[in-house]
Amino acid sequence: MLTQLNHLTLAVSDLDRAFRFYVDLLGAKPHARWDQGAYLSIGSLWLCLSLDQAPPSASYTHYAFTVADYAQAVQTLRQAGVAEWKVNLSEGASLYFLDPDGHKLEIHDGDMASRLASCRTHPYAGMVFFD
Q1: Where is the VOC domain (predicted)?
Q2: CA 114, 117, 121, 125 torsion: positive or negative?
Q3: What's the predicted TM-score (pTM) here?
Q4: Nearest to residue 62, comparing CAs of 92, 110, 104, 112?
């Protein structure tokens, strides 16, 4: 069935503001833009911004990204005044922050291998590993 993530589409309430946030602050590469949306990329990830007034979910759903220089990225985001929505309690350094429309984002200094290695030492309640 599924083989990989194809793209993420984020509903945004102000396309100009969201475009500047993702391109100018986060470094996404713009590919196309129109009255109701924009196509960007972050590495191999295809990101679509779509003009929509519906608010994002209040759940733990969020989008995590890898950055080249974690410390510099944290400094840049905090200097820009992004709102932080969660304190990291798991392996690897993470900054959880909101985009201008309240979408929950994360920059994470780690990967699944480092997370699983940590979990093997300190497993979550009821955790089972599949090797």
Answers
A1: 4-110
A2: positive
A3: 0.79
A4: 104
Local structure of 21: helix, strand or coil: helix
Tell which residue, 85, 96, 99, has the closest CA to residue 10. Answer: 99
CB 30 within 8 A of CB 69: no
For 34-59, the pLDDT digits (tens) are 999 999 999 989 898 988 876 666 67
Q: What is the DSSP string of 55-111?
A: PPPSSS--EEE--S-HHHHHHHHHHTTPPEEE---SSSEEEEEE-TT--EEEEEE--
Give the C-alpha distances (Å, rounded to integers) separating 78 from 5, 39, 97, 115. Answer: 29, 26, 9, 25
SS3 content of the chain, % helix, strand, coil (to 5): 25, 35, 45
Query: Which tokens is 81 given?
Result: 């005044």
